[in-house]
Amino acid sequence: MADKKPKTPKRLRRSASIAELAERAIEPMVRKRGFANSELLMRWSTIVSAPFDKGVVPDKLNWPRESEMNPHVGAVLTVRVDPIHALAFTHETETIKGAINRYFGFYLVDKIKPSRRPFVPQLEEAKKPTQRRLSEGEEKSLAQMVEGIENPELRESLLKLGRGLKGRG
């Protein structure tokens, strides 16, 4: 038997953004789920209005077999739906379908149906830390630290940074 060498990843001969590298990394999984690329997944919150941007997640895109004969046949989009938004989602499927098709500029989705797979909520963005007011002693120590800086804009920026760091609560 011939020895199989492990497949080495293709190297880029240029600098690439993190988003581009991440998209290349998840491309096999995305194609397995029926999506041509990750555009629908990555732009979901832009395409769909609230509350469905966080309460509904695209799961799979199934193309019917007749699509080869008739190019005007759209795919069936299977989505995971948060149980809280399930009733409203059933009433708004036509609006969501229209928004997806408008975004892509062609007839992509014909039907939207809920998935049987459980909904996994997206992680919420990190909440902004609360700020407390600094005591007079803390203000004086900050002022002493930056008093040797000649540039007034830089000095004020460093004071603001110091207040933000020390005032976290």
UniProtKB/TrEMBL annotation:
Name the domain of life. Bacteria
Protein name per UniProt: DUF721 domain-containing protein
